[in-house]
Amino acid sequence: MTPPTVAVLGLGLIGGSLALAHRAAGGRVIGFDPDADARAAAVARGAVDAVHDTPADALAGADGVVFAAPIGANLALLEILAPMVGDGVWVTDVGSTKAVIARRAAELGVRFVGGHPMAGAERGGIGAADPLLFQNAAWVLCPEPG
Question: CB neighbours (10 Å) of residue 113?
Fold first, then answer.
């Protein structure tokens, strides 16, 4: 089975680490970050196969979407991208809270399963990203009823 193509929206510590790990497993990663320096660093580190300066472009061709930006930014991205998420595309996040984004995803008709990796580091940003950050770490999934 071919690993899915994943759009990672937010290329900081968590998103960058996830992107590096997915690529190391043979998957394809399409990245987005509003910060041009973060986009350039993600390319330089080999964290992404392609990177875009708009979230809509990053979503094109993705099998799944990971919202890996700060919580407020994830909500704004969800609002923008909800109409573009196809029926077969899975959507998750890595934020620390779930109720607001899960409720809004349901209101927008997006099939969403919230997630929270129990991992982190003292430093942030793509420069601190580590493909082994999630090794042996719990990843809490928070599916909505139904």
Answer: 15
Q: How far is it, in rounded angstroms, from Cα 97 to Cα 115?
A: 9
Residues 6+ apart with CB under 8 A from 50: 30, 31
Specify whether the CB–CB gap between 81 and 65 falls below 8 A. Answer: yes
**pTM of the complete model beyond 0.90:** yes
CB within 8 Å of 2: residues ≥ 6 apart: 26
- Give the amino acid at 116: H
Each residue's pLDDT tens digit, 56-91: 999 999 999 999 999 999 999 999 999 999 889 999
Nearest to 38 by CA among 64, 69, 63: 69
